[in-house]
Amino acid sequence: MTAASPPAPVTHPRTHPVEFWRSRLGAMASRGETDGPRVDQARAALSWHRTRATLIREGVAGQRADELADLIAEHTDTEAVVR
Which domain of life does the protein's organism represent (predicted)? Predict the structure, then answer.
């Protein structure tokens, strides 16, 4: 059973480090909140950070990695709405 969560304010993943999003997701899970808009937001932010880290590891410059991660996340969001 999960607790109801209020809508998550729109926050770009880069406004907080990956550790913030990990701890936020863990804190919500420890309270039994395993789905909902805040959980979705934290998971999406972690996905964005993983994508950015992969791009940087592959040799893409930081600013360009941010732009590409944004583009990939936008495309993923659009794809989820279509399904």
Answer: Bacteria
SS3 label, residue 68: helix
> Are 55 and 68 within 8 A, CB to CB?
yes
3-state helix, strand, coil in the chain (%, to 5): 70, 0, 30
CA distances from 82 to 69, 73, 76, 79 (A): 20, 14, 10, 5
Q: How confident is the model at residue 11 (pLDDT cuts 50, 70, 90)?
A: confident
Q: What residues contact residue 43 under an 8 Å CB cut-off, 6+ apart?
A: 25
Cβ-contact 14, 66 below 8 angstroms: yes
pLDDT bracket for residue 76 (50, 70, 90): confident
Q: pLDDT, tens digit, for every residue of 28-38?
A: 999 999 999 99
